[in-house]
């Protein structure tokens, strides 16, 4: 087990263009499940590939277990990686696939067999050992890829969107399996995804990236409840945080904080919303409305209300809503960065 | 097989097409075989049905081929030159194609096309300058003359062909091999080459058949009978003036083409198989 650290890690693919990854400083904790989250093109995969040694950094250093490994090839870094495509060797059987890293490191055959059996049993794929990758289902391929990563007992696991090729149902169970698997082996894991559900449910901490810059590092709670800037605020959560611009600041509040006025106790900001559209999602409803009257007249606001509490909230009508004062976050209008809370007058 | 049931008529149509093509492709072999064993009088009689034996089969043509020409020698020369050309082609083309496909970016793509263009210059244009090179090397009238000149067109074609195969290999596979403990060269040898077996076999067959059939260079650079290949020796010594020794000619063709056909069929599924299916996705 080991700590992964990057120091001012930067990758510029084309000179005179913005870097894919810019001055990233981060340190994992030992045994942590760290998630890189960002939209496509945010540099999360490039960052992971630099940690793996598959991409050469333009500047900066990668440290694994306290040693600078920037100039070491991938094979010397003690890492294992699972690729989005799984990258199983098509000409080898499952057994040979799993044993491949051991063979490459010169582990003798009897020992190799033992390790392959151990990894296969951990993932419940002993019955597949004789098959070729093309004879496996998506879920089975993913397990084989995991077993191949696991077999060498690496100090760090790197996972590059390993669930994105699975169908929705399988993805949910694979997520759960991966989490419990990590709890058992407790190997430092870096997991890349663009799916916020995966990030929130699996990560001990989340690194939110955009345009190659780290926007925030924090636990799922922190990045959701205390977003560091407007990007994080709108990237996480579905529907995203409501942002209402004022002269020099932006006020943000989550859709679930916008509730019918009668349900709010304590200090709150009242908003009158004219409801334009109601989406019924079973246990809750998404209400799309515009602010009716006051300084922010006409701004769009989305509310998420439990179906049980939303009786009488129909399309076309205006209703009084309120946002608890503690749920309103403030951002600097120029930079988008988080700003100190202030009095907000809606009228 | 899955899929909806076809109507009998559709199935009949398919069988007719398949049988038609099979007959078309098998016919040259049948023709060579029957001509090999026909008596000359049977062969030249226009009253006779040409598709069957009208007189007793004979071994005369084979006797002529093996006893009165250097056919065995030519066959051996062809095999040796073929093996050498295949070896040279693989040694040069496989690493070059991989480098061009993987390591050189857009420049590699253009260079690859440039290399392929050299293949388009016809031998009928090149044999004159080539013959000067051959004589400068002191290789005229030896088998070496063709062993060094054939790769000038097998290599560019093979590079171009293999580039396609290497590009089809997902980059993730190589990356996975690097993470799993191989060097880049190790990944090339232990992963890229085994996965590209079908492409490499295609190159082997292409280069070898080229040696068996090439005419211009072999005729120009080699004059003595004992150094010639099948492709030149057979037409020179079995077509004398306007006399065609059809039986022996066909025997020579049959003996030369059968091994290649057999090898080709052995690896047929390798050529066709979607070999990387299942690697990704």
List the helices and strands and how they pair.
The complex is a heterodimer of chains A (347) and B (281).
Chain A: E1 4-11, E2 21-27, E3 33-37, H1 44-52, E4 59-64, E5 67-68, E6 79-82, H2 94-104, H3 109-122, H4 138-150, E7 156-160, H5 168-185, E8 188-193, H6 196-202, E9 205-210, E10 213-218, H7 220-225, H8 230-235, E11 242-245, E12 249-253, E13 259-260, E14 268-280, E15 284-291, E16 300-306, E17 318-324, E18 329-332, E19 338-339
Parallel strand pairs in A: 3-8, 3-9, 6-7, 7-8
Antiparallel strand pairs in A: 1-2, 1-4, 4-5, 9-10, 11-12, 12-18, 13-17, 14-15, 14-17, 15-16, 18-19
Chain B: H1 8-37, H2 40-44, H3 60-68, H4 71-103, H5 105-119, H6 123-136, H7 143-149, H8 151-168, H9 171-179, H10 184-195, H11 197-213, H12 216-221, H13 230-238, E1 239-240, E2 243-244, H14 246-266, H15 268-272
Number of DSSP strand runs of chain B: 2
Helix and strand sequence of chain B = HHHHHHHHHHHHHEEHH
Q: What is the beta-strand fraction of chain B?
A: under 5%
By CATH reckoning, the class of the largest domain in chain B would read Mainly Alpha
For CATH, the homologous superfamily of the largest domain in chain A is named as P-loop containing nucleotide triphosphate hydrolases
The CATH homologous superfamily of the largest domain in chain B is termed: MetI-like
Helix content of chain B: over 70%
Distance between the termini of chain A: 56 Å
